[in-house]
Amino acid sequence: MSRFLLLQLRPEAEASDSEFRAILTTSGLSEDRVHRLCLDHEDLPPDLDPGDYAGVIVGGGPGCVSDPPAKKAPVERRIEEAILRLMPRITAQDIPFMGCCYGIGILAHHLGAEVSKDRYGEPVGAVTCYRTEDGAQDPLTIGLPDRFDAFVGHKEAVQGLPKGAVHLISSGPCPYQMIRYGQNVYATQFHPEADAKEFETRIHIYRHKGYFAPEEADTLIEMCRAAQVTEPPRLLEGFVERYG
User: Fold this and answer.
1) For the chain, how big is the Rg over CA atoms in Å?
2) What CATH class does 4-243 carry?
3) pTM for this entry
4) For residue 199, what pLDDT band results from cuts at 50, 70 and 90?
């Protein structure tokens, strides 16, 4: 039975566990098909080879790759350094990869593109996404509608398409919502694993993390509950079906 490597970057146990359950639900994976590593308190095994897995999935997190090193908490620096150590092998060998939210910053940074808070940050909530012409042809996004809603919430964003990458999905506020490098390395700015309930959990956990004013939490939860976000989970399901 093929297994997937899941790298989680959230130092909050409640958020990490909730994200784990959401990824299992949306991807269709069972726990015995996942090698889960929580990089906030687990080191990468020295002999870990991402090529030994059917694919690599990276979850989101509160860190920002564009923050100056001196402003990053020690746990954030350790998480970022660990995942960046794997990226050269993943991109060089075109190992199946799905980076969710934080993952697009890691991929773009590794590829030499600018990731910053200058433009394209999006408040917590649902945003309308659009497939590009390349997105209409890509094996993972070909089954998505040309227009769909997804949950977002990010302080930083990719400022320009990385060299050699393909632009698959955009939105009005943030043009680079999904990209592909090579044939098998994918990353999204939106959260393909999250439904309204999952986002409600994160709003409670991150209400004092600078994503929004704490007093806006209840309004954001109601907004998420009213949103019609149905298509993004198909990406994780399709990723597992294609490579598993």
Assistant:
1) 16
2) alpha beta
3) 0.95
4) confident
